[in-house]
């Protein structure tokens, strides 16, 4: 079932409420976090709601999906920088509990193994936020990535590099590789929220609806997860079977 909302603001309201519920139930919960324009309204709403409700976030743990290889945390296009700007600097988190892949590590293979191990040692992810690329990638798991993959280094496809080039001054500056949680890491989360917005994602979602489970469309692995929620705006849902779409009642309350 697809959950269809009027717009990204309504999705943000819904997910902020869900995140707060998880933290109230377990103040030390582990969250799986994502980056990108799709997540910005979600983090903005969550920050405002946490402040309004005086919710303690100091004990939660987080693991980010991915990071470019070769970019420092201070680089404006790194995902560490994004997280600091949009979330981590906005609320009183414990920095020691916030985990991101290190794009500058010299020991990439060991770092990847340690990252997956740390996710498991934290007790596992309570809720994993996800976006999806136009080629169906989740995290940076490109088409063809085995579903049993753990955190690894991936060579970014030309399609992904082109999609991300708008954030850089030229294609030459777009990193060619990244560290990403593997699909098995993502599927180990107890709950997954895939957020899809915009008309440019409508065909990708149609392919998800109509197709089978295949590594050539990595996010179809989510069909194997018993507690995945796919949240779309009207534009992203425009090609889907209306009988498979549920439109939740919208509440403005956090």
Name the helix and strand elements from N-terminus to C-terminus, one letter apiece: EHEHEEHEHEEHEHEHEE
Broad shape:
globular
Radius of gyration: 17 Å
- Decide which structural class fits the backbone: alpha/beta
Strand content: 15-25%
Mean pLDDT: 95
Distance between the termini: 23 Å
**Low-pLDDT sequence parts:** none
Sheet of most strands: 8 strands, parallel
Which percent bin holds the helix content? 25-40%
Q: Strand sequence of the main sheet, in spatial order?
A: 5-3-2-6-9-10-1-11
Number of strands: 11
* Continuous helix count: 7
What would you note in describing this structure?
Keywords: Hydrolase. It comes from Alcaligenes aquatilis. The chain has 254 residues and is an alpha/beta fold. 30% of the residues lie in helices and 17% in strands. It has 7 helices and 11 strands. The strands form 2 sheets. It has an 8-stranded parallel β-sheet, covered by helices on one side. Strands 4-8-7 form a 3-stranded antiparallel β-sheet, with helices on one face. Strand 2 (30-33), helix 2 (40-53) and strand 3 (61-64) form a beta-alpha-beta unit. Helix 1 (8-25) crosses helix 2 (40-53). The chain is globular and about 50 Å long. The two termini are 23 Å apart. The model has no long low-confidence stretch (mean pLDDT 95).
């Amino acid at each position: 079932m697809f959950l269809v909302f009027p717009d990204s603001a309504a999705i943000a309201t819904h997910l902020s409420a869900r995140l707060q519920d998880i933290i109230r139930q377990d103040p030390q919960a582990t969250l799986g976090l994502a980056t990108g324009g799709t997540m910005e309204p979600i983090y903005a709403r969550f920050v405002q709601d946490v402040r309004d409700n005086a919710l303690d976030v100091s004990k939660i743990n987080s693991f980010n999906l991915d990071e470019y290889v070769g970019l420092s945390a201070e680089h404006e296009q790194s995902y560490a920088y994004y997280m600091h700007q949009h979330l981590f600097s906005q609320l009183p988190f414990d920095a020691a509990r916030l985990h991101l892949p290190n794009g500058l590590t010299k020991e990439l293979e060991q770092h990847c193994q340690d990252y997956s191990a740390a996710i498991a040692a934290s007790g596992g992810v309570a809720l994993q936020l996800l976006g999806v690329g136009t080629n169906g990638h989740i995290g940076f798991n490109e088409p063809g990535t085995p579903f049993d993959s753990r955190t690894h280094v991936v060579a970014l496809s030309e399609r992904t590099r082109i999609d991300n080039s708008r954030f850089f001054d030229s294609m030459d500056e777009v990193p060619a590789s990244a560290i990403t949680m593997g699909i098995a890491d993502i599927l180990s989360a107890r709950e997954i929220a895939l957020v899809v917005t915009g008309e440019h994602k409508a065909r990708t979602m149609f392919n998800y609806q109509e197709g089978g489970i295949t590594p050539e469309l990595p996010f179809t692995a989510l069909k194997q997860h018993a507690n995945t929620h796919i949240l779309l705006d009207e534009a992203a849902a425009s090609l889907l079977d209306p009988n498979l779409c549920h439109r939740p009642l919208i509440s403005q309350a956090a």
